[in-house]
Amino acid sequence: MTRETGADIRVLVVDDHQIVRDGLVSLLGALEGMEVVGSAADGREAVHLVAETEPDVVVMDIQMPGLDGIEATRFVTGRHPGVRVVMLTMNEDDDTVVSAIRAGASGYLLKGAGAEEVQHAVRAAAAGGMVFGASLAARVAALFVGAARTEPEEVPFPELSERERGVLDLLAAGRSNDQIAAELFVSGKTVRNTVSSIYAKLHAPDRAAAIIAAREAGLGRG
């Protein structure tokens, strides 16, 4: 469903606490350019009402009986990709924030947010934006930047086991089999068997070829 330019923003309110739910309905319903098309007390009811009322934005609590807000958001955004979801909750732990975003939420506010902040979030979400409360915005950015930075680097020779990569690194550093055995506290036979396995997996005809491949991959320089 595509919202017509100039049309009221259709909002569905979902919260298992009636006082909070009624308060949000009153707040949003009184705003110019917004129409509250329904309210639900849990995630399961919310999923059904989205199909019936076709809202532009769902203001969704997280902790609810039955189907919680994150699972409900996953259902809603999966079945109705044009519907935007703004989470409004007491939960501010990092795992919950990330789970909500991954479920498809377009915004995340804490329940202490003021009326103006809630109104801005709904309008921004309806316009296709992503919005987070002032206390969360910097943390959300840091979470995703940190996740990108901590993605594991590509491991050289993934076909090798960790032990085999360690032995290859020592080979590339110029160690003999006896030196490798002493450094790793293993027998000479174990080292010879490991080296033979490395040759086979790398299709290296001899020690020199294995060392050249290892050095080109950055091993042996530690």
What report would you give on this structure?
The chain has helices at about 20-30, 45-55, 70-80, 95-105, 115-125, 135-150, 160-170, 175-185, 190-200, 205-215, and strands at about 10-15, 35-40, 55-60, 85-90, 105-110, 130. Helix 7 (about 160-170) packs across helix 9, helix 7 crosses helix 10 (about 205-215) and helix 8 (about 175-185) crosses helix 9 (about 190-200). The chain folds into two domains: about 10-150, Response regulator (Rossmann fold, 3-Layer(aba) Sandwich); about 160-215, Arc Repressor Mutant, subunit A (Orthogonal Bundle), CATH 1.10.10. The model has no long low-confidence stretch (mean pLDDT about 85). It is rod-shaped, with a radius of gyration of 28 Å. Helix 4 links the parallel strand 4 and strand 5 (about 105-110). It has a six-stranded parallel sheet, sandwiched between helices. By secondary structure, it is an alpha/beta fold.
Which CATH-level-2 architecture of the largest domain? 3-Layer(aba) Sandwich
Classified in CATH, the superfamily of the largest domain is Response regulator
What is the alpha-carbon Rg in Å? 28 Å
Q: Could you report the average pLDDT, rounded to the nearest whole number?
A: 86
Major beta sheet, specifics?
A: 6 strands, parallel
Order of helices and strands: EHEHEHEHEHEHHHHH
Share of helix, binned? 40-55%
**Treating each run of at least 4 consecutive H or I residues as one helix, how many helices?**
10
Query: What is the number of independent domains?
Result: 2
Structural class comes to alpha/beta
What is the name of the CATH class of the largest domain?
Alpha Beta
Distance separating the two termini: 58 Å
Q: What name is given to the CATH topology of the largest domain?
A: Rossmann fold
> How much of the residues is beta strand, in percent?
5-15%
Biggest sheet strand order reads: 2-1-3-4-5-6
Described by its quaternary structure, the protein is: single chain
Catalogue the unreliable spans: none
Large-scale geometry: rod-shaped
